[in-house]
Each structure stands twice: as C-alpha cells, then as structure tokens.
Amino acid sequence: MPQHFVNLPGAATLPTRQYQLAGQIIDDLIAESATGVVHGPAGTGKTYAVQAALERLRDAVPGPAGSQVSVCTLAFPAKPTMRLVADELLTALTGAVPPRSRNRFQLISALTDLLSGPRRLVVIDEAQRLNGDCIELLRHLHDHPHTRFALLYVGGDGCWEVLSREPMLASRVFRRLPFTRLDRPAVPALMRLYHPVYDGVDEALLLEIEDAYGKGMLRNWAVFTHAAVSLCRKAGTDRISAEVAGNVYAKLGGGIR
After folding, report:
1. Closest by alpha carbon to 82, among 146, 136, 35?
2. What angle, 0 to 180 degrees and rounded to 10, lies between the N-to-C axes of helices 104-114 and 132-143?
3. What is the bridge-based pairing of β-strands 173-178 and 149-155?
C-alpha cells in the first residue's frame, strides 16, 4: 500500500466509498480504453486511493498474453507547453530522451505509434496545471483511431473546472469521481478503524477533534494522529483522552484549520 501522509505508523487504509470507487473506476477505464477524472481538494485522500489502485495493477500476476497493463504516471509544472507534454510522455514511455531535433509533430507521430501497442494506462497528475492546448494534445492522442490506452486525469482544487472548460474533453469523460470531505457522522467509526489510538474512544471526543481540527480532511487527521501518538506515548497511555487532545491542539497551533 502507499505510504500514509507523514508516514504515520499503525494507520490503516479506510475503506470509504470514494476509496473503493477509485479502484473500480480505474478498472473501468482500462477495460474500455476510456478517459476518466478523479479530483477533489487536497487532503481528501484521492492521491492515496489512486496510488493504491495503481500499485494493485503493477503487482498483478501476469495473465494471458496481452492482459497485463503498463502504467505511466506524469505530472507537469504550471503552464506546460504542448512540446513539453509530448516530450515527457515520449520519454516516460520509451525510457529515452527524444532528440531535440524532433519537432512537436514528429513527437506526436512517435507517440501515436507507441500508444497503439500494448494496453496502457496514462495518468496525468496535478491535471489542473494543464492549459487548453495540452488537454487537446492528449485528447487527440487518445481519440486517434490507431491508439489504444486509458487516460486518467487526477487533480486538486480547480481540476474539474479546468478540464470541463474544454468541451471536446468533457464530453468524452467516461468516469468522473469527485473526492469530498468525510461526512461528520461517519468520522468516529472511521477513526476507530484508522488508528489504534482511537479504539474505544468516546464519540463525543472524536467529533470534538473533527470540529476543531479534522474538518473532514484525512490529511488533517493524519497530522493530528501523528502528534497524538507521540503525546500518548509520553503519557504512558495507548488511547487518546480529552487531556491529550488538548495538548495536541496546543502543539498544532490551537486546533483551528
């Protein structure tokens, strides 16, 4: 499994509906060589869910010839050019840097040939950084009659707003999964699954932590739990208490996120 935020020891993977859907959606995209989008605010668990699904694909036991899926993951800096996207995608697929003498059209031709071979999943992380030209390039490659690959965009705040502004892409999205904050009533049960430090802890205390610091964000809970585990150890206890929670708030700047 992927590492939890701040490498939190003892943390478990939460089987939320969004986590489970991420894996199902990626399987759907591969089966249909389709386009999908996973997006949501930072800290909601989307990157962890996608990474877990990709690890499962990479670790899968090879089946019949042609059934194995090659995964290629890329992230670009803000405002990349079409040339940069084509260049880095070709480098990722071949393991070799393309000659600088090649122009964008030659790169696209080479990419078309490569993407018409074995089954692939191309993942574009931080997709909100793409501009319209880069989105159109990827759409063109995916829609080419000779290519055969699944395309997944993953992004944070503003991702869907950026992608949906491109009608040619938006109309082709086969699966879309928005990640959202945890539902407040579900938080106590989820946190008891998440880490032993919350096992058997009163629901009222867990909801207080949620309101003061968690705010439905898994990343916030990871930061809080990391500090709580340390303070519980110093206090000689295995479970968080109201006193320990108060000390965590103080350590994290008052508990307001």
Report:
1. 136
2. 40
3. unpaired
Residue 111 CA: distances (Å) to CA of 62, 90, 119, 123, 172:
25, 6, 14, 15, 20
Cβ proximity of 209 and 203 under 8 Å: no
Block residue for tokens 């080419």? 144
Neighbour-count burial for 164-191, b at 16+ CB within 10 Å, e otherwise: eebeebeeebebbbebebbeeeebbebb
For the chain, first and last CA: distance in Å? Answer: 28
| Nearest partner of 76 among 129, 135, 136, judged by Cα | 129
Mean pLDDT over all residues of the chain? 92
* Structure confidence by residue, pLDDT tens digits, 197-235: 999 999 999 999 999 999 999 999 999 999 999 999 999
Among 48, 141, 56, 126, which residue's Cα sits nearest to residue 90?
A: 141
Structure-block tokens of residue 110: 């080479």
Stated pTM of the model: 0.91
**Which residue has tokens 């949501």?**
40
Amino acid making up residue 202: D
Q: What pLDDT, in 10s, does the model give residues 148-164?
A: 999 999 999 899 999 99
CB atoms within 10 A of CB 146: 9
Is the separation of the CB atoms in 28 and 34 below 8 Å?
yes
Beta strands in the chain (DSSP E): 35-39, 70-75, 120-125, 149-155, 173-178
Cα–Cα distances in Å, from 241 out to 22, 202, 256?
A: 34, 9, 19
Bridge partners of residue 204, in order along the sequence? none
